[in-house]
Amino acid sequence: MVSGNGSGQSVGGTQQGNVRTFLKRKDIEISFQRYAIDAMSAMAQGLFASLLIGTIFNTIGNLAGVETFNNLGSFATSVSGPAMAVAIGFALKAPPLVLYSLAAVGYAANAEGGAGGPLAVLVVAIVASELGKAVSKETKVDILVTPAVVVGLGCLLALVAAPGIGAVASAVGGFVMWATELQPFLMGTVVAVAVGMALTLPISSAAICAALGLTGLAGGAALAGCCAQMVGFAAISFRDNGWGGVVSQGIGTSMLQMGNIMRKPLIWVPTIVASAVCGPVATVVFGMQQNGPAIASGMGTCGLVGPIGLYSGWVEGGIAPGAFEWLGMALVCFVLPVLVSWVVAFVMRRAGLICDGDLKLDA
User: Which of 283, 300, 337, 290 is nearest to 226 (CA)?
Assistant: First the structure.
């Protein structure tokens, strides 16, 4: 009996060890970091390099009346699915043949996922990429086997699962947008704080907004929260980082402060308060709707993508922005984040809760 149990445990342990060895050899890491952070961040970059930049070209074309820009925009937006999938594969360290094969998978998942296409691409591309990595270079006819597995199984999974994944994403996004319309003050605050904090955390707020299709009033609240984080941190850390910090955080990303936040969480309070203020100002006072690409809702002032998305939504919606709309954009995206975060930080500095050097970025 003892010998039998020991033998069974030995066989089981050996099998588990073989699986672990195989996964390590193939660089298949099943983890939250790899799938929820690395892959989602890459997906957002793929969207930025296709749908978002295409929308910007389209906006320029519409404003300037130059059809060439509209053609460029059309080319870019049409490959958003493949761009997302290839970016995800790159983040998962897929070998070249797997990476190239993911283009077809991304197209299929995005098309079948409908309005929730980005989330469908995320899930399907992850599965297809890992399956491709598992079979890559395991046979002498790798040039046939790997694309067949990635494209075949990936596209089949897209046909079966993407519509359901897309529907779930659309339903969640639709609920958030409906709730924001119903309770603009409360939801404006909640959405702004949640998405704004996601932008500063090492996860992708842009990918979250894109996956949920977050536009309209909820998109405006999300944009307000993201701008509050980026512009707020740029403002309150000026004495520590100077103009270089203003540019790197205000037009780059507030994620640069994550190390300082881990060391001293209190420094996050001013920008969170700014998000909580700017959200309902956007929804209740200005009725600010972000109807550009959903990814723009989670970009904040990064490359001024958020305000550009807001403007492109006006243009596509046939809205001729007047002084009220421009005032809302200026206050919500730039002025209020500076004022609110600076006042809160000033009070906290006087109370000794924030000190010089707490917001210093690593050189």
Answer: 300
The structure tokens 């702004």 sit at: 192
Which conformational region is residue 214 in: left (phi greater than 0), alpha (psi within -120 to 50 degrees), or beta? beta
Task: Report the C-alpha gap between 234 and 87 in whole angstroms.
Answer: 29
pTM of the entire predicted model = 0.81
CA distance 151 to 129: 10
CA gyration radius for the chain?
Answer: 23
State both tokens at 211.
């996956």
Q: Which residue from 257, 256, 234, 254 is spatially nearest to 244, judged by alpha carbons?
A: 234
Summarize pLDDT for 25-68 with one digit per residue, the tens. 888 999 988 998 899 889 988 988 898 888 888 878 887 889 99
Report yes or no: 313 and 290 within 8 Å, Cβ to Cβ. Answer: yes
Confidence of residue 319 (pLDDT cuts 50, 70, 90): confident
Q: Cβ distance 289 to 41 under 8 Å?
A: no
Which of helix, strand or coil describes residue 302?
Answer: helix
* H runs (alpha helix) in 154-304: 154-182, 184-200, 205-212, 216-236, 238-247, 258-263, 269-280, 294-297
For 289: left if phi > 0, alpha if psi spans -120 to 50, otherwise beta; the answer is beta
Token couple for 350: 């006087």
Q: What is the dihedral of CA 260, 265, 267, 272, to 10 degrees?
A: 120
Q: What is the pLDDT of residues 116-170, one digit of tens each?
A: 899 999 999 999 999 999 999 999 999 999 999 999 999 999 999 999 999 999 9
Alpha carbons 355 and 45: distance in angstroms, whole number: 35
Domain residue ranges of the chain, discontinuous segments joined by +: 27-170, 183-350
For the cut 90, the answer to whether the pLDDT of residue 204 exceeds it is no
One-letter identity of residue 189: T
